[in-house]
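Bumping with the actual sequence this time:
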Amino acid sequence: MTGPRQAQWFHFGPWVFSIDAAQTLIAATPRDTQPLDVTTWATAYGLTRLDDPHQRAVSLIGPTSTALNRTHAMTTELTTPLIVAQLDITGHPHAPLLIDGTHRLYRAWRENVPRLPAYLLTVEETRQSRTTSS
């Protein structure tokens, strides 16, 4: 017996993003997916270094080596689009941030998949899906 589906959240610094809210916004305003370059994003998120036993640096954006469930990652569905938010940061308007799909990105990188589909939220949609953690 399964219970109700748990809400999905992505935490980044002081912000918390509701993945459910982002999915609702995407459903309300359908759009095409954009191709996301797996190697570029996996490198930026530190996923390419997670399994390095001599790792000396920590990624400031991606998960730590103990935070990513590799077993789960290898069972994820690669056809499900990732979600990329656009942050409005002073000096960097529309700065992209992957808020849903890190496990899929890891699997795609491990399996040498060159691109994954991704939905791109607008800056306003990003604001609507974000709250500040207390």
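The tokens above came from a reply further down the thread. The helical segments are 19-28, 38-44, 70-73, 102-110, 123-129.
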